[in-house]
Prior knowledge:
The chain has one domain (about 15-135). Strand 1 and strand 2 (about 115) form a beta hairpin. The chain contains eight helices and two strands, in the order H-H-H-H-H-H-E-E-H-H. By secondary structure, the protein is mainly alpha-helical. The two termini are about 25 Å apart. Helix 1 (about 1-30) packs antiparallel against helix 3 (about 60-80) and helix 2 crosses helix 3 (about 60-80).
Amino acid sequence: MRGVVSSFLSKNQFRLLRYSIGILFVWFGMLKFFPGVSPAEGLATDTVRILSFGLLQKALSLKLLAILEVGLGLLLMFTKEYRITFWLLLFHMACTITPLFVLPEVTFKSIPFQLTIEGQYIIKNFVIISAAFVLLFAHKGQSYSE
């Protein structure tokens, strides 16, 4: 039994990683289609407002984020071209990390170590970024959709 599980995980490790990140993006993105449901809604819309210099209204920014996140999730799970998905994901992750710098009063209880729940929500994105690099560089020349 152990050999079967090990063989399965070895054979499907990148697919499992892609799907698990894809499910996160679809799930969190879907929440943003319903105002007041996403726990990250306030942080996300405040960040977009700052990054867009106030040009994007809250409702529109939330819909755009929802579309981006659900789209990224679907791309992660179903595309054969991972490089484009990787760069979109990296752009999105860079934007999600910016509240650590532009909204430190929301992300930290005490800088630099004591994070709020929002700050912890952001810090977990470093795992997603690392996983995205693993997917990009592992097994060069092989299709990630296999």
